[in-house]
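so the lab meeting is tmrw and i was supposed to have these ready like two days ago... anyway. pasting both below. for each one the top line is the aa sequence and the line under it is the structure tokens. i havent really looked at them closely yet so no promises
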Amino acid sequence: MKRTKQMSESMLLGVFLTLAGGFQDAYSYNCRDHVFANAQTGNIVLLGQNLAGGQFLNALRYLFPLLAFAGGVYVTEWVHQLYKEGRYLHWRQVILLAEILLLFLVGLMPQSMNTAANVLLSFACAMQVNSFRKFRGIPCATTMCIGNIRSATEMLCRYHIEKDSAMKQKSLCYYFIILVFAAGASIGAVLSQKTGNRAIWCAAGMMFVGFLLMFMKEEEEPETQEEQKKQEKQKQQKAEK
């Protein structure tokens, strides 16, 4: 049996979004006052550190991106509900268009507007992480690595214990995405130092490629043995009822 695979969950799309995610993190750190637009954990630590030291004004540099991140998640859920039945654009394409616009605006902002730039970057990051959560059937993040590292290593261990080749493939997918993120961060670091504020437009270009990819026809792929067993179990449960 085969199951339909959404282009919004394809590995090719995941590569471009992960490249953009790594790029954004390096850009915000190198070009926008050492603030992490994607990794909000670091911002929470720096916020607490500044508050403890009585540096209340400086703490706002980290508070605003945190609030923007939460706002991005909230808005994404609204977009999902409003466009989930869209005929011409997938709701995730609407999210990507919004992200591209935000990154374009960031590239126009001078250094004197770094706080505002980081707010937009964090907002865009939240929209992406809340919209694209799965690639090739595995939960995966495109804007941070900690969860991917945990999942990759867990799958690798399960493969060594259970000798299940599916666990090996999932582990390799996770490690691949981590390498792609590192590549995006490397490109972002180099271009940010050479090009400056407008380097972020490169990440917007990567997202635009992702936007175009989602117009491609959805593919079909064979169901895994695990999925087939799950469906058979569900059918048996329904029959018993």
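ok protien two:
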Amino acid sequence: MNPLLEVSHVCYSYHTLSGETQALTDITFSVEEGEFLAVVGPSGCGKSTLLSLLAGLMQPEQGTIHISQSPVSRRQTNIGYMLQKDHLFEWRTVYQNVILGLEIQKRQTAENLAHVEQMLKDYGLAAFKGSRPSELSGGMRQRAALIRTLALDPSLLLLDEPFSALDYQTRLNVCDDVYQIIKKEKKSAILVTHDLSEAISMAERILNLSKRPAKISRIISVQFQETELTPMKKRQAPEFKDYFNEIWKELNSYG
């Protein structure tokens, strides 16, 4: 069985009048159906650049990126991208926000709208369908943003530090919420984060990037003896500290 996502020998550089800055070099990895992968690395190493390439917003200078065996392009519709901010529009209700993608793509079928209704119910937002985003808590806004992304039924979710704008307590709770929603919807996901605890508690594998020009220094498989743990409970598991120390030591070895 072929992986959902295949990234092979990808390189990318930024070009300005002052010269060339190599961001990524020889990046090769894959993501299986239903897998949750986290990407960590030093600040400015190119993590968000990698997500932009995976989303088809930019094209690699060398190498290839395939999803479901087809080259990724700017017109990709089976990739969902969740940004640091929720970008909910205040002049639209919660319901109008979560169906925005369906409106734009003219996919407001009875089946798709029924799926949205069910997600709003399942994830605690049904009572707020007619509310404005400003009436929601930070965690509820992120759930609404995720439902908006899932409404399009993407094969792969790209999460670019989606919890960074939240306070610490809310961040922990939303981390649990988002993880469980993604698992229930049986989606594959790639999370970019600076938070090692977040990466360890959510991902099955962690891709460590080196300092720029970034290459993959290591891919760590994360396994807990007790299965079916939420991210919050994983933070309390005995294996958690070992993974944290291992990754922290490697990141700090870059200097």
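from a quick look at the 2nd one: The mean pLDDT is 92. The radius of gyration is 18 Å. will dig more after coffe
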